[in-house]
Amino acid sequence: MGADDNPRMNTPNTLSGALPLTHWGLIRARGADAVKFLQGQLTNDVAGMGDAQVRLAGFCSAKGRLQASFVVWKLAHDDLLLACSASVLPATLKRLAMFVLRSQCKLSDVSAELALHGLAGDSARALIGDAPVWTQRPIDGGTLVRLPDVEGVARCMVAVSAAPAALPAIAPEVWRALEVRSGIPVIEAATVEQFVPQMLNYEIVGGVDFQKGCYPGQEVVARSQYRGTIKRRMFLFECDAATLAAGQEVFHSGDASQPAGMVVNAATQGTGSVALVEVKLASLDGGTLHAGAADGALLRRCELPYALPSDAALPA
């Protein structure tokens, strides 16, 4: 990747284009009980979601560990789309289907029917207009989802039956770096059941509703929130090594015997990497963090695009 492909060196005026989001997939939930079914399975309030709203939501195990993370929106009252990492889609679809039982809800993989594409910069802004973040609207052949800007770069995602009009191509790693820098975690195959939502700041970015009804793992998630037992959080890091990957362990310079955290998502950036990493809060109070081993590549902490609660407000 050259300097021109580095999202930190671009502005909305210089980064513009689109790409197919082959690392994402789409699950469709359709039927009279679709909303009710998802309401009982996901961490966020689907029943209260407006027609134009988009919500983040997690699917947890009984132990409160995330098995998948979704971007959810409605095509109609009883017809919803759930975008997730393509690497977890088959297993997630199978697990969700186990709970459908007699509900009038059909779950299916529609990734081939409604392909996801990402647009960034001027190309995205031309479609977005004045649409608020985390809203959606119909477009020809599908829907458009307004994503948060990243360092001034506008972003959106479209789920369409045919590829959007020809636009300049964005390199996949440029888009992935923007995803990472957004601070919005995505569960991949390598991180299934590794994290309670709060470890990934999921309640901060709007992925958990503590007022809704029960869902798998709800008691564990609620207990972590209200008893103040969160001792791990996700932070943004840069690294000179280009080999960071989801599921990779991270070590503290003062303890080579056990990992201090795990890479959640990572992307190549220039000759290095940018990554979201879940770490023990205590590991940020002195010493340094390294990829793979206590003497591995140094991780440099960066600022997230949102504020963390006081339990994570440790020195940079």
CATH topology of the largest domain: Gyrase A, domain 2
Radius of gyration: 19 Å
Beta-strand segment tally: 16
Architecture of the largest domain, CATH level 2?
2-Layer Sandwich
Identify the CATH homologous superfamily of the largest domain: Probable tRNA modification gtpase trme, domain 1
Oligomer: single chain
User: Largest sheet at a glance?
Assistant: 6 strands, antiparallel, barrel
Number of helices: 5
In short:
This protein is 13% helix and 34% strand. By secondary structure, the protein is mostly beta strands. It has a 6-stranded antiparallel beta barrel with strand order 11-14-13-12-15-16.
Describe the fold and architecture:
The chain has five helices and 16 strands. With 316 residues, the protein is mainly beta. It folds into two domains: 3-181, 2-Layer Sandwich (Gyrase A, domain 2); 189-303, Elongation Factor Tu (Ef-tu), domain 3 (Beta Barrel). The strands form three sheets. A six-stranded antiparallel β-barrel has the order 11-14-13-12-15-16. A five-stranded antiparallel beta sheet has the order 1-7-10-9-8. Strand 4 (66-76) and strand 5 form a beta hairpin. The radius of gyration is 19 Å and the shape is globular. The two termini are 28 Å apart. The relative contact order is 0.16.
Layout of helices and strands, plus pairs?
Layout: E1 16-20, E2 24-30, H1 34-39, E3 54-60, E4 66-76, E5 79-85, H2 89-98, E6 106-109, E7 115-121, H3 122-128, E8 136-139, E9 142-150, E10 153-160, H4 172-181, H5 218-226, E11 232-239, E12 249-252, E13 261-269, E14 272-280, E15 289-291, E16 297-302
Antiparallel strand pairs: 1-7, 2-5, 2-6, 3-4, 4-5, 7-10, 8-9, 9-10, 11-14, 11-16, 12-13, 12-15, 13-14, 15-16
